[in-house]
Design a protein that fits this description.
about 600 residues, mainly alpha, two-stranded antiparallel sheet, 21 helices, disordered N terminus
Length: about 600
């Protein structure tokens, strides 16, 4: 009897112990790690969303990662003379980390997450459609990060395996060459083009995700960085023909810079960064990768830099007088100003008073000032100043200056206008550039350009006005592209890929483009500055302080100190990278 009790007790104890052991084997779903995540389709879909999240940080496209390209170029300059000044001056110190380290840091967060997805997607049973979509998006986002890194730093660390992070010998990477990085970007984009669906499938892929059209657009851009014009032209013509989805210019240029479902992810957008409409997000600002909140604002802060000080912006950046005067130099076929001036800069022009008809796209609602936050009922032009102390013409693009959304600027990550990173107009103007490089000047190249000009009612260009490929290149590079993409991300990249810092005549031209006058009077921001004025009458130019190699950003000293395998890039060493291509000579265009 005693023996039986002992046996029963032992059995009960064994069962209890077994139950306890089983309970210990249960995974807590609230404490997931990379070891137990990404093993099914649902978690991989979540991981892809997490990858998109990293392109909307301070160092990617929520502020600094976007605006640093503008301020190093000739369309924008630093009006606050604080944060952005050394980047505008093209002579930033290696100890400055705003652009030197933040962009690097946040782009590698994108690389890290996409590498994880690309590793896991090969080990999960998926339908071919799910596999293609997940892998294709990860490839595109990784290529976007490396495209950005190469264009800001020239050399960077090429890490393509997630497992490399687990080994101390491979976690600290060394620099790869510009060509090695771009080879990887091309390979990623070429594969993404082949497996991603087009925007024509509708659903999520027509509302902000990377598509084969996104990949094709960036593939052409990447090819053009190394002057592979023939290959790029083939891709661009395929985009135009609809091979990668249906794209078209919006009838109204302004629709590319408005907030809301009616305008964002429109027919012209190849890819844009998604932000929630103003006031619909949370209250916590996620400036860095460590700021993770369920109540994130999910907006960007470009307006905080671009908008007028009078309405509460930080007023760090203003438009160059060169860009303003470029818009004013040519009238539309109906005698009006180029509507792109209205949408790009915060100037008040008396001509706007009579814009009550519909003859020029971008003014469909009568008087354009009727719902203009920054100018009604203002009559004093000083409200258009970027900085109250230093002056400068405020920038309207990516702000609410032309939309009745807010009454004052709430600085920080609150603006909900999606940042369109690539538009169909870029495809057309790049096709014109490629055609001109290969065969130009030709009527085909002119026709591509005229499609973009007709949208804003500018008169057609004529082939007989351009006697050489150099002359048509000048029109594309210094008229058509800055007017179409003024104050958008990409002009600094263009100046580098064209080699403008490698030609004395081009550097003289940039000196004029980058000239400005610090003054609280907004009218000084509109001066038609001549070369002989630079250095006199308080007029200066960013090119006066240009240091060789600083067309790219140096690696931050803190990065070099933290990574024993990392060495300084070309900019850190003060050495211009090799430019093995021909630089077009400056051509004086007829007025």
């Amino acid at each position: 009897m005693k023996t039986r009790y002992i046996a029963v007790a032992a059995l009960v104890a064994g069962m209890s112990l077994s139950a306890c052991v089983d309970e210990l084997d249960v995974t807590n779903p609230n404490t997931q790690t990379t070891e137990d995540f990404g093993k099914d389709e649902a978690s991989l879909q979540e991981a892809i969303i997490a990858c998109y999240n990293r392109i909307r940080l301070e160092g990617t496209f929520a502020r600094v990662g976007y605006t640093m390209d503008a301020v190093r170029a000739d369309e924008v300059y630093s009006t606050s003379q604080i944060w952005y000044l050394p980047y505008d001056a093209l002579n930033v110190a290696t100890t400055d980390e705003i652009g030197n380290q933040w962009i690097w840091r946040d782009c590698y967060h994108v690389v890290n997450r996409t590498n994880f997805v690309l590793q896991q997607v090969e080990n999960v049973a998926l339908s071919q459609d799910a596999y293609n979509k997940i892998k294709g998006q990860a490839l595109f986002l990784r290529s976007l990060a490396y495209y950005t890194l190469a264009n800001y730093y020239h050399e960077c660390c090429l890490i393509t395996s997630y497992s490399s992070y687990s080994d101390i010998n491979t976690m600290y990477a060394s620099l790869n060459t510009y060509d090695e990085v771009l080879d990887q970007v091309e390979a990623d984009l070429k594969e993404a083009m082949a497996i991603l669906p087009s925007r024509n499938v509708g659903g999520d892929f027509a509302k902000g995700r990377a598509t084969c059209g996104s990949a094709a657009g960036y593939y052409a851009r990447t090819l053009m960085l190394r002057h592979k014009y023939s290959d790029a032209y083939t891709v661009l013509k395929d985009i135009i023909a609809g091979t990668y989805g249906t794209y078209a210019l919006t009838a109204d240029y302004g629709d590319n810079f408005r907030e809301g479902q009616a305008y964002e992810n429109n027919s012209e957008s190849l890819f844009e960064v998604q932000y929630m409409d103003y006031g619909t997000g949370g209250v916590d600002e996620e400036w860095t990768p460590t700021n993770i909140s369920k109540e994130a604002t999910q907006g960007h802060a470009v307006e905080s830099n671009y908008g007028p000080a009078a309405f509460g912006s930080w007023a760090d950046l203003g438009a160059s007088p060169w860009l303003y005067n470029l818009y004013k130099a040519e009238k539309c076929t109906d005698g009006r100003l180029d509507p792109r001036l209205y949408w790009t800069l915060c100037s008040y022009e008396s001509e706007y008073d009579s814009y009550t008809g519909n003859n020029t796209a971008a003014y469909p609602d009568g008087d354009p000032r009727a719902n203009v936050l920054y100018q009604v009922p203002i009559t004093d032009e000083s409200v258009c100043r970027s900085n109250s102390t230093n002056g400068g013409l405020a920038i309207a693009k990516w702000t609410y200056a032309r939309q009745s959304v807010i009454s004052t600027i709430t600085t920080g990550l609150h603006n909900g206008i999606n940042l369109r990173l690539m538009r169909y107009s870029d495809v057309l103007l790049r096709a014109a550039e490629c055609e001109n490089e290969l065969n130009g000047p030709t009527q085909t190249a002119i026709d591509y350009i005229n499609q973009v000009r007709r949208r804003v009612a500018l008169p057609d260009l004529k082939k007989e006005d351009f006697t050489s490929a150099d002359a048509l290149f000048e029109q594309i590079a210094n008229v058509e592209r800055p007017k179409e993409f003024g104050c958008e991300n990409g002009r600094g990249i263009d100046l580098n890929r064209w080699g403008f810092y490698y030609s004395d005549s081009r550097k003289e031209q940039l000196k004029q483009h980058m000239a400005y006058k610090l003054s609280a009077n907004v009218n000084d921001a509109k001066l038609d500055i001549k070369l002989e004025d630079i250095g006199n009458n308080s007029i200066t130019s960013s090119m006066l302080t240009y240091s060789k190699g600083r067309e790219y950003f140096p690696l931050a000293q803190s990065l070099l100190d933290a990574n024993p395998h990392l060495s300084g890039n070309c900019s850190y060493e003060g050495i211009q990278p090799e430019f093995p291509y021909t630089v077009h000579p400056v051509v004086e265009l007829s007025k």
